[in-house]
Design a protein that fits this description.
Layout (H helix, E strand, L loop, with lengths): L5 E10 L3 E2 L5 E15 L2 E14 L1 H5 L8 E10 L10 E11 L1
Parallel strand pairs: 4-6
Antiparallel strand pairs: 1-3, 1-5, 2-3, 3-4, 5-6
């Protein structure tokens, strides 16, 4: 089995409205902005990215409310953002655990 896991922290910069799927499952997306300094090949590297995160089901209710400027740690897995286009390269982080940071 292949490995697909991610852990990242950052600041929420956008929160979409909560939606309910036709199957009755709650969905909510937000954008997480990450900045850090990492080491690569023995050299420091500045890292900056914005990541679209989606949470579903019980996780949506457990972490409410999520607001702009919240600092979060997100653990989850990567998947394409839509199944409508098999060639789509846009990825989304599907949250399995969230932790609000101070």
């Amino acid at each position: 089995m292949e490995i697909n896991q991610a852990v990242i922290s950052g600041v929420v910069i956008d929160v979409e409205s909560q939606r309910i799927s036709p199957g009755g499952i709650a969905h909510q997306r937000f954008t997480l902005q990450h900045r850090s300094r990492q080491e690569q090949a023995g050299q420091p590297r500045e890292v900056f990215c914005r990541i679209l995160v989606e949470m579903r089901g019980d996780l949506v209710a457990q972490v409410q409310p999520i607001a702009v400027n919240d600092r979060l740690k997100v653990e989850g897995f990567w998947d394409r953002s839509s199944y409508k286009d098999d060639t789509a390269s846009k990825l989304i982080l599907h949250a399995q655990q969230l932790q609000k940071l101070l």
